[in-house]
Amino acid sequence: MRLRLLGLTLCALGLSALTGVPAGATDSHGAADPVVTNFDSQIRVERDGLLKVSETWKLSNVTGTFTRFVVTRDHLPDDIDHVQELQDLKVTAGGQEKKTEISKSGDVTSVAVADVSGATQLDFTYTVKGAVAKTLNGTEVRFAPLTGINLTVQQANIVFSTPEVTHVSCFAGAVDSNSPCSLAQMGETAGPTFQQQGLPPGNTVRMTVGFPEGEIAANSIVEYRKTLKRAFSTDTAQLLTALAVLLLGAIGLLLLYRVRGRDRVDPRRVVPASLFSLGNDTRIDFTPPSDLRPGEVGTLIDERIDPVDVTATIIDLAVRGHLTIIEQEHDSEYARPDWELRRVANAPSEELQRYENVLIRAIFGDSDSVLVSELGRQVRANLGQVQDALYDGVVKRGWFTERPDRTRSLWATIGIAVTVLGVALTIALALLTTWGLLGLAVTAVGVGLIVVGRYMPAKAPAAGRVLGQVAAIRGELLEMDVSELPSDQHAELCSRALPYAVVLGGSERWIDALVATDDDVDEDEGFPWYRGPRGWHLQYLPDSLRNLTTNLTGALFAR
């Protein structure tokens, strides 16, 4: 308990004050111990709550510095302290004023009087401010003039000069003791009187005198302890203000999303579209609507460039004849697989999207082939340019009014700034006031802004029809009976659809359709866009493509 710690502190203070040449100690063996033979105190309680105190200390065998203590800080519930101040202190001995030193340590104020020798009488006069506290039925003086002195007090007499009183109490012993004093009475003609016989060293005498309403003014000096509970007070004003900030912040975030972040298209809209159309001579042509590319489709759907968008683009470029993926020979069953990406010299003359050209340059540089295991740092260093080109491309198509990545970055920056401001505000308010909850509310709004910022990129109206076409294509990829495709075009059309299925879903069924083109037990070379090693069969294609996707993602995006 804190009161017990106070008692120990007082004893320690008393001992330290008497160290060196202990008060009353002598070098002669068997000399009498230093004591306070008598302590007399007259306390006049003023109407304004000030205590005018006159004390007489009769000391015996005390030599050196004499130090007495007064409890000037009382710890109450709810992190409240009542503080008392000693003012106008004067100490005399034989009519001569003595030099004193006042200091505060923890809950007590000490008064040290130097040059005390032998049998001495010290007269103290001082004023106490803050000793009168408000109660339910009036006011009370709470005062402890004898506290923790390291000498035996043989006789203590305290007399109050007061108006009408309602009750008195007095306790002696340890600071938190409930042992009554030798005498505590309300006189009919005199003020309250208190006595204590034989107070041991380190003990305390504390008194309470009660007054009816209006007799004595309360003058408590209230200070608040710095605790987490008080710093983040849940009193009505603080709690309602914090909740109001949270509510207004939530409403603001909702309005911000509805005004700036909500797509201006209906994502449930389905527009008739197909990857396949009937061409000349009953052949089936592969004709994605709006000349959509897999990388663009993935970016349009989730408004960000994912690893699957880039790997699907690489497979799409291979299928369209711009590069060839060649699986390398396996040194052993447990060897790490590898692939060679080889640029096709006589690639089709179709116009590539800018991001596709940037990706090809990032992969090959000045060479015509590269191993996936060696793509390494050069490709990752240029991947930002690929992403920039792809983001710029979807804006150029009119699907977004501004680049989604820059929109997310802007709102993330604002959210981080608000969060940092909220944290700083929380620390300041918690240290200086009881309004820490308000700072937490501002911090929560900042975190909410960071989260909402991820969804702030908004699709433009022009993206509506394209999204409807993408919905139709997804349904086709997931549900189309692949066996209906012409047998002589089966491998070609399934290969063309595969990159879109990688992005939109259903890639397994299109890979299985490619595997189904294997109608013998002989080893297979593969397709024009994918070549297997010696002894390879089409049945290995699912594992080969799965491993290829994993290794490409690692090479392109690993840090």
From TrEMBL:
Residues 287-514 form the Predicted membrane protein YciQ-like C-terminal domain. Residues 36-163 form the DUF2207 domain. The keyword Transcription regulation does not apply. Coiled coil: none annotated. The chain crosses the membrane at residues 239-259, 410-431, 437-456. The keyword Secreted does not apply. Residues 1-25 form the signal peptide. Keywords: Membrane, Signal, Transmembrane, Transmembrane helix. It holds the Pfam family DUF2207. This is Putative membrane protein DUF2207. It comes from Kribbella steppae. The lineage of its organism: Bacteria, Bacillati, Actinomycetota, Actinomycetes, Propionibacteriales.
